Amino acid sequence: QVQLVESGGGLVQAGGSLRLSCAASGNILRINIMGWYRQAPGKQRELVAAITSGGSTNYADSVKERFTISRDNTENTVYLQMNSLKPEDTAVYYCTAIGRVGDGPYNGWGQGTQVTVSS
């Protein structure tokens, strides 16, 4: 059993910053990719940023230069530093991880954390 536990969401004014964290725990052999998706009301879930175990990153165009993803491989934790937040960044942010656990391949999601940016 693997759990992804997110923290760090909240309410912030436009132009402010938040830092999300997601820690994976359980019978983990390795996590190849960790990332963040978000889903705003009435919209599809979209990729925000992802990072491989080697440190390669990928960002949605809408968050480039504002958001930074990082990870601690020893702690199986991924972070999302969000700066210069905009009201359109308001969404539920979900952590995801892809890798291998004791029973085989793993592809899981966290429970989500709300980020609200006021104008």
Tell me what the structure shows:
The strands form 2 sheets. Strands 2, 4, 5, 6, 9, 10 and 11 form a 7-stranded mixed sheet that branches. Strands 1-3-8-7 form a 4-stranded antiparallel sheet, with no helix packed on it. The chain contains no helices and 11 strands. 0% of the residues lie in helices and 64% in strands. The protein has strands spanning 2-7, 10-13, 18-26, 28-39, 46-52, 57-59, 67-72, 77-82, 91-101, 104-109, 113-118.
Sketch the major β-sheet. 7 strands, mixed
Structural class: mainly beta
What is the first-to-last residue Cα distance?
40 Å
Number of strands: 11
Summed over residues and divided by their number, the pLDDT gives a mean of: 96
Oligomeric form: single chain
Q: Give the % helix.
A: under 10%
The outline comes out as: elongated
Radius of gyration: 14 Å
- The helix/strand series, from N terminus to C terminus, equals EEEEEEEEEEE
Uncertain segments of ≥5 residues (pLDDT<50)? none
| Count of DSSP H/I helices | 0
Report the portion of residues in β strands. over 45%
Layout: helices, strands, pairs:
Elements: E1 2-7, E2 10-13, E3 18-26, E4 28-39, E5 46-52, E6 57-59, E7 67-72, E8 77-82, E9 91-101, E10 104-109, E11 113-118
Parallel strand pairs: 2-11
Antiparallel strand pairs: 1-3, 3-8, 4-5, 4-9, 5-6, 7-8, 9-10, 9-11
